[in-house]
Amino acid sequence: MEGLKHLLPDPKYLGVILIIVFVTSVTVFSVNGSLFDINGNGKPGVVITFDDNYVSDWYAIRDMLKKYDAKVTFMVSGFDDLNTSDIEKLKDLRKDGHEIGCHGLDHVHADCYLANNTIEEYLDAEILSAIGAMNKKGFFPRSFAYPYGSHSSQTDAALLKYFKRLRVTTGSNIDNIKDANEAYYKFNGDRVVASVCIDDSEDITTEEILEGLQRAKEHNETVIFFTHQPINYTVDNSTEKVISYERLEAVLKYAHDNNLTFYRMSDLY
Ligand SMILES: [Zn+2]
């Protein structure tokens, strides 16, 4: 018994230990039937992801993101092609509180690739090589966005061993953002989540995007958006994967002013 005593906490610290245990484990409570934790999970919000590798253009919106207290996720493809300056910029963005996720090494279309290759080859060439390139520069991605949204239950099962969350897309044939049900996360623990494109090139107006945010707010959901390259001018009927500052700022402002939480991809439980 004498030996056991050493394993037990000193009674005078017991109160403090109990408080720590309580605060760290009992962080979930119910308000109006919704589950919250101390990080705000469960509150309505938005996930904004930027894909590919427009690192300098992402870096240029740092101040805009700060202005609205926005935290976003950058999904990087072609990580092995980034130069030293790009890597430093990504580190600064991470320091600002943004997440750096993975978008594949060569941005391959999973279905097409797997038509002629095995899942092991896909993992080696596209996923593990991308994770390795990121690790080498001090990045440890927790989220993955499928290029072109192309995936299957086979790729999901393989990738979920390496990532907390996988992002797919709703496809481009949606009539209205507020009706793109799959892109609204309901805090149900899904690890494969869909997202809807808010590029200027999509046939979607900024007003429709704001209606999507309004839906998230009213229904206690988190809407997941993806876009690509922020640009400081507007273009009509663009075929490029761009989002104008005007549109981006309208989205950030609406979310901020309506108390939506800016979740990073891996924040969602
Ligand atoms: Zn992409």
TrEMBL record:
<keyword id="KW-0472">Membrane</keyword>
<protein>
    <recommendedName>
        <fullName>NodB homology domain-containing protein</fullName>
    </recommendedName>
</protein>
<dbReference type="Pfam" id="PF01522">
    <property type="entry name" value="Polysacc_deac_1"/>
</dbReference>
<keyword id="KW-0812">Transmembrane</keyword>
<dbReference type="InterPro" id="IPR011330">
    <property type="entry name" value="Glyco_hydro/deAcase_b/a-brl"/>
</dbReference>
<keyword id="KW-1133">Transmembrane helix</keyword>
<keyword id="KW-0732">Signal</keyword>
<dbReference type="GO" id="GO:0005975">
    <property type="term" value="P:carbohydrate metabolic process"/>
</dbReference>
<feature type="domain" description="NodB homology">
    <location>
        <begin position="44"/>
        <end position="263"/>
    </location>
</feature>
<dbReference type="GO" id="GO:0016810">
    <property type="term" value="F:hydrolase activity, acting on carbon-nitrogen (but not peptide) bonds"/>
</dbReference>
<dbReference type="InterPro" id="IPR051398">
    <property type="entry name" value="Polysacch_Deacetylase"/>
</dbReference>
<dbReference type="GO" id="GO:0005576">
    <property type="term" value="C:extracellular region"/>
</dbReference>
<dbReference type="InterPro" id="IPR002509">
    <property type="entry name" value="NODB_dom"/>
</dbReference>
<feature type="transmembrane region" description="Helical">
    <location>
        <begin position="12"/>
        <end position="31"/>
    </location>
</feature>
